[in-house]
Amino acid sequence: xxxxxxxxxxxxxxxxxxxxxxxxxxxxxxxxxxxxxxxxxxxxxxxxxxxxxxxxxxxxxxxxxxxxxxxxxxxxxxxxxxxxxxxxxxxxxxxxxxxxxxxxxxxxxxxxxxxxxxxxxxxxxxxxxxxxxxxxxxxxxxxxxxxxxxxxxxxxxxxxxxxxxxxxxxxxxxxxxxxxxxxxxxxxxxxxxxxxxxxxxxxxxxxxxxxxxxxxxxxxxxxxxxxxxxxxxxxxxxxxxxxxxxxxxxxxxxxxxxxxxxxxxxxxxxxxxxxxxxxxxxxxxxxxxxxxxxxxxxxxxxxxxxxxxxxxxxxxxxxxxxxxxxxxxxxxxxxxxxxxxxxxxxxxxxxxxxxxxxxxxxxxxx
Length: 366
Known about the structure:
By secondary structure, this protein is α/β, with parallel strands linked by helices. It is 51% helix and 10% strand.
């Protein structure tokens, strides 16, 4: 199936990721069926797309007519039967394996055998999901990054049974919607999350040890060339998200992915980050409650840091990137490209950078 033969695209889930995918695909010229469980959810998704498109119009990136044409390509629905003629279905619902499988199994009976099924999961096994449907060879992961219309990277993840033809079609589709595909093997965290989570976790460990203040840690990483400090990033993503995502990584990789106590302490007192108004920071500063929390953790663990360097966090990414290369999760070029595009790892004006490039520049004798 050529990209021109895919025709209509189905998107399951109208939340932030699903609506972002529908927006991106429609803007690339594809007709889209956007499905969710209720009219309110689908309506909210369409409204989110409309607001994002309006911002593009205000910035002069789109005309009003182009905005209206994009919105016309997106058809909301609550009925899976409306997706029966889609050549590609991308699932972006809540990270619940049973829910995802139930949707795919229902669509498996409705869609033609040549249709491709894809999941936007960031934590669940593609191989395990693919095993739940008859078309395991036509199933793969297409992991977009948030915000979807802005972020250029998409991880393409084959399951053990995914055919090479399906992988190539997935790659062609991603290029066709003006994104950059990087193929990664199916493993916990895939590629980018597997490398960036040790970085985020190590920053939390440094903070709870008092090796430096949160502002000093974030300032050091920005000075090293990162677009945002890791602790501010944790606040933006959500402390609750960190609590949810670290345990599966710890289960998959053991003690090299420790679950920082600070995540659980913050969650317990409702400090979820930007969404709750308090997290590591409160209005960009550290408050007394957070400082007392750090003192208590140090008392409980008996660990107190004395100094901090940006190398501590960068090397966590370098080490995991080397593990990914050693395990053939992705190519060296793919690893560096994914980290530059997906996380803003420092790069030069030509876009050359990434953890493996950083290590090469430092040299083995560093």
